Amino acid sequence: MKEKLVFATHNKNKLAEIRNILKNYEVVGLRDIGCETDIVEDGDNLQDNAKIKADFVTNNYHLNCFADDTGLEVEALDGAPGVYSARYAGEGCSYHDNVVKLLAAMKGIKNRKARFRTVIALNLNGKQYFFEGIVNGRILEEEQGNGGFGYDPIFQPDGYEESFAEMSMEEKNKISHRGRAVQKLVEFLQVRS
Ligand code: ITT
Known about the structure:
By secondary structure, the chain is α/β, with parallel strands linked by helices.
């Protein structure tokens, strides 16, 4: 039987990506453990928010759990939207609202350098561990592709002609921020077992 791991997220896209990587585990989301709470992510940085989500599950459900927080950091915008990536265009905004706002903020700006950064917090048997994954790239001038989610249609990773939204989930996972952070998590779990 596969070992069960709780991934503290309500985001179906993130859950699908992680399940695609952690195939040897039964990865369950917040809904699967009966948690409908919208956990308030009011940390100052990605690490704090990942910790808030993982601790919420461990404290309320007494389960081992991991959570990730991800931000898109744009060099010309001093690292914005960063920790505010989910609500860049305002509370309750859509992925597309965020993309439109970012394209407008980048209009006429030559330096398109950006990176996605993911921090994972893992609560395992009373101890806490952190893993980070980064992918460098650039913000495109316009949306490209229909796959992925969030800012994927306007992010092109270095060394590739396609945006993340033009890649399969497998291709994206191999090089992405979340893929890299999860790889570190997998290596950690393997060494331990
Ligand atoms: P949970 O907190 O429930 O896990 P979330 O959607 O709030 O889900 P994050 O806080 O980690 O997820 O991510 C913040 C935002 O960053 C997210 O809403 C997307 O707009 C964007 N984002 C995260 N991962 C992404 C990815 O792989 N590709 C494109 N955009 C991403």
